[in-house]
Amino acid sequence: MIKILHTNDIHSNIHNSIELFEYLHQEKKNDTLTIDLGDFFQGNSFYNLFKGKPERKLLLKTFDIVVPGNHGFNEYLKVNSLKKKKSFVLCCNIFRGKYEVFDKYLEMEFANTKLGFIGIMSEDCFNSIELRTRKNYSVMNPFEIVEGIISEIRYKIDYLFILSHSGVDFDVKLAKSLKGIDFILSSHCHSSIKKIKIGKTIIKKSLELGKGVGIIEINNNKIKLSEKTFNHMVMDYTNPKLTFLNPYLDLYDKKSSEIITIIPQKRIEWFSTRENLMTFFIELIAGVFNSNIYLFNLTTIRSGISDPNLSTNDLYNILPFENSIIKFSVSKTKFNKCIKQIPSDIRKYLIINIVSEPKLLSIITTSYLYNNYFAKFITKQKYIHLASFRTFISEQLKNIEFNKSQHLNL
């Protein structure tokens, strides 16, 4: 019997994934393949505190095959160089110059069955990686590459798996366009969809953030699909291969539980939405840094505030990814040109506060937005770094007396 366990979008949620990794290591004793579908890194204060070191070790110890995610892309480059075993990180359509960065695919015999695995990342997903991280790399549409690999290896294998960090919508298009695919293991979009069948192709995704693991069992050509979920109640790792994580967890608990500020209960409902919270953050930024225009992406914030006692960990959950507040100058004409070329699925989340509009605009925004959507048009000057976004907000919140605050009539 073949048993495959697959995870996706852990986002460094190591402290809440103890049951998951204990289960994976227990099952590895039973000739089980383990696969992670990307975004194993970043998105949690655990990553920011330890810079990915424990995650890299855990990934290497736990999984047989992984595909890179857009979050923590550099970490997959490091892991790929550390793994002695060939074909650990798979992705067929990311290049440095004319050479593939990772192995394109893997053929293997497992439980007397020949399996093939192809790793992919969609172009949209790759382009969401911060420019300074991906500037030396390029991406190609995976459709043609995957089609070529299928024609090369399909006749030699019993089951073909596409390991995709692209989102379910993209994977559905892939399944409709290409024949010969048995499974697409999906990730990236945090969709509630767990299984779709398109023709003969099964698209399957697991729960994100360590909440569950997808299970595929194949026995005499009979396929059983299931999901095991976890309740995050276990406090420490006990498997000898995982106990190296416990000192990290102890330090993480100590650091992340520190209270930044106490918000009046009557304000919690207002702060519970991302839109209101970003408006408040922009007010805090404008109170310190003057500018003509304040431009921020709503998706910088991943959740609202639900607990009056706002801890360090709460703020990391709200602002999980590293970002800087920056300032640059640009003509009004060029600014409008830059805004128009931002993809519509990004532009719809922009919040633009216009204070004044002289011919030469002073813009305050994030390093992510600048590097991805302005830098290529503004080549004669660099931006001015003002502050780390999360650090700045943290310091401002520590100093606010909410009952006396002038911000938004709070």
Structure, described:
34% of the residues lie in helices and 26% in strands. The chain is an alpha/beta fold. It folds into 2 domains: 2-252, Metallo-dependent phosphatases (Purple Acid Phosphatase, chain A, domain 2, 4-Layer Sandwich); 258-409, 5'-Nucleotidase, C-terminal domain (5'-nucleotidase,  domain 2), CATH 3.90.780. The strands form 5 sheets. The chain has a 6-stranded mixed β-sheet. Strand 6 (105-110) and strand 7 (113-121) form a beta hairpin. The chain is globular.
**Mean of residue pLDDT values:** 90
Overall tally of structural domains: 2
Secondary structure class reads alpha/beta
Shape: globular
Rg over CA atoms, rounded to whole Å, is 23 Å
Distance between the termini: 62 Å
The helix content, as a percent range, equals 25-40%
The CATH architecture of the largest domain: 4-Layer Sandwich
CATH topology of the largest domain, which one? Purple Acid Phosphatase, chain A, domain 2
Provide the β-strand percentage band. Answer: 25-35%
Number of helices: 16
Low-confidence spans: none
Major beta-sheet overview: 6 strands, mixed
CATH level 1 class label of the largest domain: Alpha Beta
Kindly report the name of the CATH homologous superfamily of the largest domain.
Metallo-dependent phosphatases
How many β-strands, per DSSP?
A: 21
* Strand arrangement across the biggest beta sheet: 6-7-9-10-12-11
